[in-house]
């Protein structure tokens, strides 16, 4: 009885369910009132592609990213286990793919055998690693862990919350969230036409783990003496690795389905037997590989020769407090969206083209949506790659001796839209909410003459740029809702030596 | 048969067109607009109008103040749902005096439970992130320890309410004000650069949702309108720590002065008038006190009232 339930396949399913649930729970825990010291970026830290690519850009393995060594060592020993046992993206693709497509045995054999198309992911990997070697970290676009974290943060969780408020008190809104949601759905929809399309064709992490699993100690073996060439082993194959002939070892997810699908007990996992079949090595075309490397060689100078945040400060690119200088930021940020998840005010948003193509989906602050909470430093503590460095509250506010507060930008008044300036109406909400002490927003009292000849005593606001830390609460709470009369731009940010305006600061 | 079903369809189409014919582009549902109930209990002239307690231990001070004006039993009956409205607007710590002292809130929760209230809810519509405000002000912890519940409203929960004021008409209001039987207002004494002070009357601002930052454009009338529309059962002013400058956010301990005082009373205006002395203000400096007094909300001349000062 227990033997029947605890089959290899079911053991894998239990692991998969556990890790998918763990992923969702960790992401749910990624918020101010639930964190309490849990290792919430665990999956990102286990991701060897993040560790290797960010190592190439900046020659460090940052803190928790060292955990990815376990995955690398594990893959060297037992094969590409991560993809079907641990990876939330792989598991989501597998579950949804098998729910919505029921294949006839003959179609399954056709769709689950190896295709030349599967080489594509190795070219994607080559392109990303070349870009990384030059100093541009673009792996986050397609690396499955940042991809699934970002998609869940900016579209799945907010959509699940919509109209119910059971995940968030305030419905989160994300810049371009529909686009991110549609990309995620599109990838999943592709499993209608080819099972595990993402994992087999696109996934650069799968390709990297494929490279590590070229010669694992333990692997799937087919006994040629016992095999009757029935191809039943292809019925549920996850990787499309041809267990029925010479196994494509780099494609095998060690899902163990072929072992149990084989009616002749011809397939086993472990060490080879004398009658075991030969296996196929990594299959890539050298020409295509050189092509994708060259693409990277061409793309990098192109990306760095445009007017973007990497080449010149951009006024809308306000980075979270603790962010390192923009060039280094682009070397470290994997666009995973953890900072967007943890931010209590929803101000951290995925950039579209505000920071240029290189900065797509990197975090920027949009103060119409939220503002940087004065005493909050969560984003730096959650960032798995150190693009945002962890600050203490004292460091952020400049309360420890010899330190200045961390500025992320500076606020400016638009006197043509400001009620006391333009319309002689009392307001100064900005002064009320300004969190610094003394307040960066101060006021002067004016006697103004109204249209009807009466005089009125009125308070008009001013900014003290040396006290302003750019938190943006003034812009957020300004009653001019659509385009505030006080707005923050990135000038004066502590992390940049270029983006400054005041001589003595 | 076929002809009959075609005729039926045609008839159904005509009926559909007739029933839904409208000159409006969008059908509006009639949302019911509520008004505030009067949370006060009956007049009682046996007790002093205001109890002012000086001391060190916040819980003892609150107990002494409320005992002096008749005990919590005068205000809260058995099985009442009691709503407490402290000032928990800012992500600040208790020492910074931007929010109500958690010890004062905790003591009032305890007193309500001792008066056999069925539920004690603590709420505010914070300016900063509400989770952070309640956690870091210490109010969440103090409330839970004392046996009360924190109630936070999500955007969808707000209920349109008619304040029938001069500048405040229909506003979205936190739903708990309509679910509770009694309301205890627990402000802290703070400086405010536009209204000069934020104490008991301005604390009621925290019942509103929506775009309430527009209230600044006519802040004195707005505050008076709030005090006219919302009549709390009891007001307990926390003047243990007073934010004298840089209000209402504060942030610097040098802005805070320790006054070790708690003021309790039913008359919002009288309590407010007592509170402003900590900010070196006089009642005639503050227009909204005059407006409220003119409307008969309360009395600002403390000489006319019985004020009991106690030390504990």
How does this model look, in words?
The complex is a heterodimer of chains A (505) and B (312). Chain A has 505 residues and is mostly helical. In chain A, 39% of the residues lie in helices and 9% in strands. Among the domains of chain A are: 2-101 and 116-217, no CATH class; 410-489, 2-Layer Sandwich (Alpha-Beta Plaits), CATH 3.30.70. Chain A has 22 helices and ten strands. A two-stranded antiparallel sheet of chain A has the order 1-3. Chain A has a two-stranded parallel ribbon with strand order 2-4. Chain A starts with a helix and ends in a 16-residue tail after the last strand. Chain B has one domain (32-311): Rossmann fold. Chain B has helices spanning 2-20, 58-68, 102-114, 130-136, 139-146, 176-179, 200-203, 219-229, 268-275, 287-294, and strands at residues 50-54, 81-86, 119-122, 149-150, 159-162, 170-173, 182-186, 188-192, 196-198, 234-243, 256-265, 307-311. The N and C termini of chain B lie far apart (92 Å). The chains are: A mainly alpha (505), B alpha/beta (312). At the A-B interface, helix 21 of A face helix 4 of B.
Please state the structural category of chain B. alpha/beta
Number of helices of chain A: 22
Could you give the distance between the termini of chain B?
Answer: 92 Å
Q: Strand-residue fraction of chain B?
A: 15-25%
Strands in their spatial order, largest beta sheet of chain A: 1-3
- Supply the CATH superfamily name of chain B: LarA, N-terminal domain
Average pLDDT for all residues of chain A:
93
The parts of chain A where pLDDT drops under 50 for at least 5 residues are none
Oligomer status: heterodimer
Query: How much strand content do the residues of chain A show?
Result: 5-15%
Sheet having the most strands of chain B: 10 strands, mixed
Q: What's the rounded overall pLDDT mean of chain B?
A: 93
Based on the coordinates given, report the CATH architecture of chain B.
3-Layer(aba) Sandwich
Helix content of chain B: 25-40%
The major pleated sheet of chain A works out as: 2 strands, antiparallel
Question: How many angstroms separate the termini of chain A?
Answer: 75 Å
Looking at the structure, the CATH topology of chain B is Rossmann fold
Structural class of chain A: mainly alpha
Task: Tell me the overall shape of chain A.
Answer: elongated
Helix-strand sequence of chain B: HEHEHEHHEEEHEEEHHEEHHE
